[in-house]
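During the no-cost extension, the postdoctoral fellow (Dr. R.K.) reprocessed legacy sequence entries with the updated structure-token encoder. One reprocessed record is reproduced below for audit purposes.
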Amino acid sequence: MKNYFVTLFNYDCYANELILKTIIDTSSPEKPMQLMAHLLAAQQVWLNRCLGLPTTTIQLWPALGAKHEDFAIQLNSCHHAWIKYLNGLNNDDFEEALGYKNTRGDSFEDQLQYIFAHFINHGTHHRAQIGQLLKLAGLENLPNTDFIGYLRQLKN
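Re-encoded structure tokens follow.
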């Protein structure tokens, strides 16, 4: 199971890098940048929860003051921390429950494997929103951020 999730997290990073590059290259409207900022913030929140670190200092919908370069640094830094965390798990850990609080302070407990699935789906959801906004702003061709496309890239 570890290899499966490492592959998914690597895919997520790859897809985020592609869509971020597209946002930067097209000088896109503000909303795609806001969604990317949210996506990256949420990934840090989930990492902190898994590591038992506080999440209260992370704004889930941060104000846009960051530069594009900061997003790339944040993306890669968080990704490397996630891979380190995943590599430290054994197969039984994926079924362990993690207790955490959401941003409203409500307590929840979910298995790590389901948190990881949520993490991947959350990224896919927001990349699709960003893609739609870029298309509406006039971009004709979006990068292929599909999982199967990523797997094909690995084979080449």
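Residues 2-155 form a domain with the Four Helix Bundle (Hemerythrin (Met), subunit A) fold (CATH 1.20.120.450). The first helix runs from residue 2 to 25. The remaining legacy entries will be reprocessed before the final report is submitted.
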